[in-house]
Amino acid sequence: MSEKTAPLTEHLEELRKVLIKSFIAILVGTVVSYGFLLDRIMEIVVGPLKKLGQELVFLGVTEGFFTQLKVAFFAGIILASPIVIWQILSFILPALYSHEKKMFFPLFFFGIVLFAGGIVFGYIFVLGLGLRILLINFSGGLTPMISVSKYVSFVISFLLPFGIVFEIPIITYFLTKMGFVTPQYLRKNRRYVILIMFVIAAVLSPGPDVIAQLFLALPMIVLYEFSIIISAILYRKKQKAEMEEK
């Protein structure tokens, strides 16, 4: 084996180990979730719907089982996430410079916190309200009969975008730190960004419901305004440091 191909094969071998260990961790997390935590997890998932006095049904013979398996799988990913993240870090960090590592760890930590915060925010403040509006206020007098698989898919597709959009401050911090954007640029293009946010909300929202799109777009706008403040603070510190160097 030549010296040129040896490093590549070594990286591929390390990547294979990372994928195998991550897969095993997720598999164990799924088994634990299904065997010991499933009832509690289902209570949390179905809780907002039960508060409205609604019950779930399953329309196929295997629908109930596979839906529970799907929920256990996603819970297994959450349980295994520390191991998966550590495996990814062990693969990426050796390739980073020391100053990149110093910036990577805080951004990575706050990125996880913000993602989890977005999911929690969507679950506590938005999901129940959205279900009430869609199932009761805008039901047109029709009686809902909700399939458990459709409901679980709706909850997952409803909450995940909140985790994603809560990363806006981290993205803004990184772009400002790298010099790609300034607070002046963010303020100048606010109207265009808001328009783009509504388009993104329409794409990420589960279904064509305007209410769900509005629920997702409004937090994005608030986070964008917060990101402008973060960018302004960081930009001032950056300019002050440059002035001191001169």
List the helices and strands and how they pair.
Blueprint: H1 5-50, E1 56-57, H2 63-92, H3 98-137, E2 146-147, H4 148-165, H5 168-177, H6 183-188, H7 190-204, H8 210-245
Parallel strand pairs: 1-2
Helix pairs in contact: 1-2, 3-4, 4-8, 5-8, 7-8
Which structural class is indicated by helix and strand composition?
A: mainly alpha
Mean pLDDT: 87
Q: Which outline best applies?
A: flat
Biggest sheet, open or closed, and with what strands and sense? Answer: 2 strands, parallel
Quote the beta fraction.
Answer: under 5%
* Share in helix: over 70%
- State the order of secondary-structure elements, H for helix, E for strand: HEHHEHHHHH
Termini separation (Å)?
A: 52 Å
Radius of gyration equals 22 Å
In total, the number of strands is: 2
Number of helices: 8
Strand order, biggest sheet? 1-2
Poorly predicted ranges? 1-6
